[in-house]
Amino acid sequence: MTTKTQHYHPLHITLHWLMALMIPALFGVGLWMTGLDYYSSWYKTAPDLHKSFGILLALLLLFRLVAIRLFGKPAASGAGVLQKAAGVAHALIYGLLVAIMLSGYLISTADNRGIPVFGLFEVPGFGEFFPEQADIAGAAHLYLAWTLIALVVLHAGAALKHHFVDKDNTLTRMLGRRNAAASSLDNPEI
Length: 190
What we know:
The protein has helices at residues 10-33, 45-71, 80-109, 133-166, 170-174, 180-186; strands spanning 115-117, 121-123. The chain is mainly alpha-helical.
């Protein structure tokens, strides 16, 4: 069961910012690599790195969900409707990440080959589950990724609104900083 806390655990903060760096990087590399021609020196390397970092992102997502379960997370700030909207947005981000990862897996393993991860291990492939799997999953991967990026931009905008307009501690909590008001909630003796 998820416990409530006033602050994010340092592990959760670290995972959040690692994922925040990786998601736009994977998106950008994904767009770039689809334009590479066969004779580019990156033609094989870029997709291999994209897949490896995609698997790493999947592991980070799993660790993040476990961290939320183990350490809890602070309640969202704002009015009830905005809290619900934030909850829906977070659930959509997580859901889109999973869908993007699954579609990436279906693209990469349609030919029954596994996915080598940084040359350390291989995620097994199980072949084609349905006709034209790589093409259908590829289209889904692209549209889901664009949707995720739109939500990430909305998420970042909401964090900046909280910080600069609402002047609450939403952003500072995810930066690992504790303001005086938040600290006094944890320790009323202060």
